[in-house]
Write a structure and sequence with these properties.
Largest sheet: 9 strands, mixed
Number of domains: 1
Radius of gyration: 23 Å
Strand content: 5-15%
Number of helices: 12
Shape: globular
CATH architecture: 3-Layer(aba) Sandwich
Distance between the termini: 63 Å
Helix content: 25-40%
Order of helices and strands: HHEHEEHEHHEEHHHHEHEEEEEEEEHEE
């Protein structure tokens, strides 16, 4: 005779691996959490992660003195820890031009995103603590570079819950498995239902990216439905006599939601109903932009269906944004792949009225040095770099903060990664100091004991 635990285990076959673990029990936060602490400006987040560290002084933070003093030594001390021997100052090989009513400068690497500059809030003074990819990526995603902690997306889901009972609340599209890997979208000690559901990996073309085991090859939908009903009947008496057994209740609900996801997930991934104009807007008509464009279009479709947090990762195993050498070739390639898709995403969200309550965040784990590594590369720089936000209650057409005259250190309105997280949560209506979870005898939060909201960027 099959035991209840055996049945629970075997019944899950084909239900979607991590997918069903990423479902929420109910709208409004896990286990009855109150949700928003105050009126939110954003309902959801799209995080465009540029793995490897794009150079801020070559993209959104122009430095005239860097151009003027090209080839000269850096006129102040280097950080205590550097990855490689620093050379002299290296000017940007790209020109910066002013765009939009705001007149904000953007380099020639991003001519399409530049057309959306009046919707961007460019954060020029972000800084972290770790010069290594793994530590810096974990810091950006989880707030810690030394311990396994819940990811930003997991905290958002824990605090706000789901808007769709048929899809995961946290999707990560083609994520990298390097430099922190699954910890970058994991839930750590938060409920497993808060962790991200991966769709493919960075080594998988987005056309082939799927949620694993979404189709059950052994049972028809009707038989699965009957099976779930049978499991419910077996556990009815147990649940009634153990009303506080939340783990059992949550597990049963994940089975039910995963069953529903077998139809809702393929529908969300099906782009056949999108117009040719929309596909072209994202660059799906061009082999250079097609892969990342499909990821961005999927992000919009997931957001439309109530997914709370969507991460889109640009990464490959050869180039990434990590140009220790061949800066011109590498950044030119990378920017060409993402520029039009990102612009298409912003324009599409805006035309559909979604940008107003969707917060789009762009950036990498750190920036690059204004000094040369070798003859034509830049080293890692966590001490001052650029990210940007759009929509979701931030002021558009503005630059916040500044690095020094050459772009090495954050110097004005410095924005630590903890401050970035506090600000994102604030835009979602969450007080970062009150979003806590008790674990191992203490209360944890995304920002630990730090973090200040950058109120000057709020619309």
């Amino acid at each position: 005779m099959m035991q209840r635990r055996q049945l629970l285990g075997t019944a899950a076959v084909g239900f979607g691996q991590l997918a069903f673990q990423s479902m929420l029990q109910a709208e409004g936060g896990i286990d009855g959490l109150a949700g928003s602490h105050f009126a939110p400006r954003a309902k959801r987040v799209i995080f465009l992660f540029m793995k490897g560290g794009p150079s801020h002084v070559d993209t959104f933070d122009p430095k005239p003195l860097l151009t003027r003093d090209h080839g000269k030594p850096l006129p102040f001390d280097l950080p205590r820890i550097t990855f490689a021997e620093a050379g002299n100052l290296l000017k940007s090989p790209w020109k910066f031009r002013r765009y939009g009513e705001s007149g904000l400068p953007v380099s020639d690497l991003f001519p399409n995103v530049a057309q959306c500059v009046d919707d961007l809030c460019i954060l020029r003074s972000v800084h972290g603590t770790n010069p290594a990819h793994g530590g810096a990526a974990l810091k950006l995603h989880t707030g810690s570079d030394t311990f396994v902690r819940p990811s930003l997306g997991s905290w958002v889901v824990y605090g706000l819950g789901s808007e769709n009972g048929n899809l995961p609340s946290f999707m990560t599209i083609c994520p990298t498995l390097a430099h922190g890997g699954v910890n970058n979208w994991g839930s750590a000690f938060l409920p497993q239902s808060c962790q991200g559901t991966p769709m493919g990996t960075a080594s998988t073309p987005s056309l082939q990216a799927k949620v694993k085991h979404i189709h059950n090859p052994e049972l028809s939908p009707d038989r699965q439905k009957n099976q779930l009903g049978f499991i419910q009947s077996l556990n009815k008496n147990f649940a009634e006599s153990n009303p506080d057994d939340e783990a059992l209740d949550a597990r049963l609900k994940t089975f039910e939601l995963a069953y529903k996801m077998q139809t809702s997930m393929p529908d969300a991934q099906d782009l056949s109903g999108e117009t040719e104009i929309t596909k072209k807007l994202y660059g799906l008509d061009n082999p250079i932009t097609e892969d990342f464009g499909r990821q961005c279009l999927l992000a919009r479709r997931f957001c439309e269906r109530g997914v709370r947090f969507v991460q889109v990762t640009h990464s490959d195993t050869e180039v990434q944004w990590d140009q220790h050498g061949n800066l011109y070739q590498g950044h030119t390639k990378n920017a060409a792949e993402v520029d039009k898709p990102i612009s298409g995403l912003l324009r599409d969200l805006k035309s559909r009225g979604l940008l107003e309550d969707t917060l789009v965040v762009w950036g990498g784990e750190f920036g690059r040095t204004p000094t040369a590594q070798g003859t034509n590369g830049r080293d890692h720089n966590p001490h001052g770099f650029t990210m940007w936000m759009a929509g979701g209650g931030v002021k558009g057409g503005m630059a916040y903060g500044a690095t020094d005259d050459y772009g090495y250190y954050a110097a004005e309105n410095k924005m630590h990664v903890h401050d970035l997280h506090a600000t994102i949560l604030h835009l979602l209506g969450i007080n970062h100091e009150k979003l806590t979870y008790r674990h191992a005898g203490r209360d944890f939060r995304l920002t630990d004991v730090y973090g200040h909201v950058a109120k000057d960027i709020l619309a």
